[in-house]
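Example 5.3 — Heme sensor protein HssS
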Amino acid sequence: MTHSLYVKFIWFTLLTMLISSVTSFYVMNTYYHQFVKEDNDAKNVAIATEMATYLEGLDSSQLSPALDMLGASGYQLYIEDEKGIGLFYGGAYREKILSEDLISTVIAGDVYHGMLNFPRKTFVTGFFANELRNSVGVPLTVDGIEHALFIRPNIDMLFGELRLLFGGLAIGLMLLSILGMILVAKKLIDPITHLTNVTKKMAIESFDEPINIHRKDEIGQLAESFQLMRGQLKELLKKRKEFVNNVSHDIQSPLHNIQSYLTLLDQPDLSKKQQTAYRNIVHLETTRLSQLTKQLLSLTTLDEVTKLQDLEPLSINTQWLETIKRFRWKLEEKEMGLSHSLKADNIMGNAPLLQTVWENLLSNAIKYSEKNGNIYIETYNDDNQITISIHDEGIGMSEEQLNQAFDRFYRVDKARSRKTEGTGLGLAIVKNIIHLHKGSITVKTGLQEGTTISIHLPKE
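Solution (predicted structure tokens):
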């Protein structure tokens, strides 16, 4: 059973949020606003009213010492008279913003319920917000002068030790959470870092770095996929090098021959027969080079195609008859026999591309067959598809050769001599075209037992 990394992360995150964020902030904030806020405002208004009653019994000279005493007893006070002169007593406010209009209404006799109307905060409760607007205000008259008195508890003085206790608890929870996150992150990041190092090695074509990651979560699945991808990339790079070597060889070989025979043609003492022979060889090599470049261009074009264009109803049987007619001279040259049974229905396809397939298959069948051999071609309907089968009595292939038969530039003729003409690209082109038509290819063969290639194409 796969242990999902996502599930692990969700559980750990929920636990961290429950301990640190939800219990420390959200629950406290909600509780204050829902159950404590109104009572806290009323309680502080009552205290402010009692203070105002006490202060109104004093003369102006006694007002400031009395306010100092009240501030020292655990309250933050602000008093402003009708002339706009304001003084602070007790602990300092973090924000001292209060509109003149609001102060004027309190001087005129209204009560200010700042704690009750203090806006909600997500992470800081109104109880702890050290702002002048988060206070209560009452009118006050001393020696005939009207004042506005604003008070709020001095939280630092009244709850300093308790805040330190809760602060220490919060810091402890935070440190434990951070430590847990570091450990989890390290466990997650270490294999990714290892894969990054392996990737850097791959960038310089080094594929031997071991991937020792054995897990059952998404990281383990990533490591398995990475290992598979690395193997495929290694094989792709190997084939790319082989491709470049093959292209270089197959281009250099005819060019070298052309150059050599052109040099021979410059000799003054050549007979007419020799000149004709050398020109024929130059012509054959230029034809070979032209065929190679044409097939390379075809492969490049097919590699870029994702969806076939120019589809039309076409007769596979008619295409085969035209192909056989075109290759009749090669059959006669090798004194080979060819028979066919063409009974397939029409299909939707790209006519030029499929014509290329039949030409490549018949060319290969003739090329790898001995003199006086036979070829048999059959097309027939098979449920919702048609099957095209071409059988020859040629040299056949071993299992190892068959596994590489559709690789680019692979040829059974390892010496790559001109005895067997060809570029080694024909079957690669065939494979691409058939796959673009959503078809499939099967091959039955054996050394000196001939080869049967069957192609299956959907009717629609």
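Remark. The domain at 211-304 is CATH 1.10.287.130 (Helix Hairpins).
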